[in-house]
Amino acid sequence: MSDPTLSIVCFSGTDDRLQAVAVLTAGAAALGRPVHLFLQYWALDAFRKDRIDADHGLAPEAGAAGREAVDALRAAGQASWAETLRQAKELGGVEIQACSLSMDLLRITEAELDPLVDGVEGVTSFYLAAGEGQILFI
Amino acid sequence: MTAPNATVDARGLSCPMPIVKTAQQIRTLTSGALVEVLATDPGSLKDFTAWTRTTGNALVEQTQADGVYRFLIRKA
User: Fold this and answer.
1) What is the model's pTM?
2) What CATH homologous superfamily does B6-74 map to?
3) How far is the C-alpha of A63 from the C-alpha of A25, rounded, in Å?
4) What is the pLDDT of residues B61-72, one digit of tens each?
5) Which chain B residues touch A88 with a CB distance below 8 Å?
6) Do A30 and B23 touch (CB under 8 A)?
């Protein structure tokens, strides 16, 4: 496959938005399309290894009915976003990088991040990897 | 009918797991191998058509019974 890399800037750290990131990533990986995730702010915070499987809440628009719907899907066996990303990485072509500025802001060291994260990079490196490919912001 | 070389039981799994599990399974097989996939995700109907078209694997057969979709895929 010669498809261009799909780059996703992950900003939000709630479980629903990270689930959307994971689904888009896994779908692209299954098609053989390279995916590059750039973790910023609250999304990066959710990738701390001691918290990655914790409850990160939902976006404000979810409301009580949304919470119920998300819980029902999880109870029916839906894989968590972290598990979905692990499966996507197994397929190959998925690169997850932490934003160095957000690392400073949140005072996170690389050792505190889940092994899903491949490394730390700056915004210039992110743009270089994105090339002419599409960039999403979630 | 030729027996499949492997079966991916993706029943009960939501999108995109049926495709992800199938892509993982396909990688372990040699060209020409047959994979049977069972799924209940309603999106899988369009997803498997799109996935096989994009990846070059052949969707040999597609059936549906009791809410379960069955796909037979030959690895390219």
Assistant:
1) 0.91
2) TusA-like domain (3.30.110.40)
3) 26
4) 999 999 999 999
5) 20
6) yes
